[in-house]
Amino acid sequence: DQQVKQNSPSLSVQEGRISILNCDYTNSMFDYFLWYKKYPAEGPTFLISISSIKDKNEDGRFTVFLNKSAKHLSLHIVPSQPGDSAVYFCAASGVYNFNKFYFGSGTKLNVKP
Amino acid sequence: DARVTQTPRHKVTEMGQEVTMRCQPILGHNTVFWYRQTMMQGLELLAYFRNRAPLDDSGMPKDRFSAEMPDATLATLKIQPSEPRDSAVYFCASGLTLGQGDNQPQHFGDGTRLSIL
Asked: Which parts of chain A sit beneath pLDDT 50?
């Protein structure tokens, strides 16, 4: 039973345009959400996070939006660059555990030059 | 930059053999996680430790998998006997959490790519 879902396995975007990656979750106890980026043959690297007390967090070209009522979060990358091409995982955690994350299955982003 | 170190990076072995994967968490981190990445399941949590004590290993096939932390600088994941369906990339991650609900990003190693023939 997947509690965090990324329904788009892949996304292709032109360089300079916006990339929007989506993630849905089912557990209303989740209160901390993250995005990780993964290049081939490397481990996932932390990109950006958001607490449930916020609905937006921004870091440079990356912005994460959280819609608690819809149990949905999204990652916006503006402008997209070829170096952003990677697999993006969203993850969620709740107040009731010690940093245990539930991961989505990932979305492969391809940014075309 | 401090990093999580995993060894070996690649392992090819025959079915039935014992496999041991090792992880050196980032110094000072008190939580350690083992994940398995497969095409269908994405990142699947196998086990995790806090202050070297196992908190949850419900994601792990108990009959053949075992996870331990002999000391704060070493975590191991063993498979005995190994089977072809165990072929995957296994990641270790570490983090620092001060208590329940204190969520911080986990930091991942580069994984062990395991192939069981």
From this structure: none
